[in-house]
Amino acid sequence: MSTSMPYIDVRCPGAVSMEGDQHRVSDRPGDLFMTIAQPLDDSARAARLRRAWILIGVLVVVVVSATLLNRHFAGDNDVAQLKAGDCFQKTGSEDDPGVKQLGCGDSHARYRVLKRLDDEVTGLACSDVKGSTGSISAAGAESYVVCFARNRH
Predict the structure, then answer these.
(1) Please, how many CA atoms are within 13 Å of residue 131, restricted to the half-sphere of its CB?
(2) Structural domain spans, the chain
(3) How far apart are CA 113 and CA 92, in angstroms?
(4) Which of 15, 40, 55, 126 sits most deeply, having the most CB atoms within 10 A of its CB?
(5) What are the tens digits of pLDDT across the range 95-143?
(6) For 111-125, what is the HEC assignment?
(7) DSSP for the chain?
(8) Neighbouring C-alpha atoms within 13 Å toward the C-beta of 59
(9) Distance in angstroms (rounded) separating the CA atoms of residues 52 and 47
(10) 75 in Cβ contact with 100 (< 8 Å)
């Protein structure tokens, strides 16, 4: 392959061109030199393709790892999906409540959702819900309160 790059001479102010490793400023006012890239040879194409596959592989590993870590640290937390009539088992603590949604006939389903109040942020909203003995609140992009009572199998 040739080391010098071909160029096209077109009239335009502020012309600068590159030939091989040399930069050339036009001595004629209004010249513009357009550099045309040489086609890549097979080894350069293979190197670019290899880098692209490595990048894709790294991205896949990062996404899979982030998903697994999120599942590990988030644990069982189906609280966002709970609605009236659903039953669940408490899996978290008072400070970090987590729940696992179960069928109401399951012996581990200790609680039944009486009402879900969207756009509420305080458990006091459940004080008007007949039979409610507890609540789970979430504030943020989606705010809600889940009012619940003991599940009677």
Answers:
(1) 11
(2) 1-39, 79-150
(3) 17
(4) 126
(5) 776 788 999 999 999 999 999 998 887 778 898 899 999 888 887 778 8
(6) EEEEEEEECCCCHHH
(7) --SSPPEEEEE-SS-EEEETTEEEE-SSTTEEEEE-PPPP-HHHHHHHHHHHHHHHHHHHHHHHHHHHHHHHHH-S--GGG--TT-EEEE-S-SSS--EEEE-TTSTT--EEEEEEEET---GGGGGGSTT--EEEEE-SSS-EEEEEEE---
(8) 6
(9) 9
(10) no
User: With the CA atoms of 104, 108, 113 and 119 taken in that order, what torsion angle do they form, in degrees rounded to the nearest 10?
Assistant: -130
CA dist 38 → 7, 15, 28, 48, 141 (Å):
11, 21, 26, 15, 52
CB contact at 8 A, 141 and 101: no
Task: Record the tokens describing residue 42, joined without a space.
Answer: 């097979």
Find out whether 136 and 113 touch, Cβ atoms under 8 Å. no
Residue 5: how many other CB atoms lie within 10 Å: 15
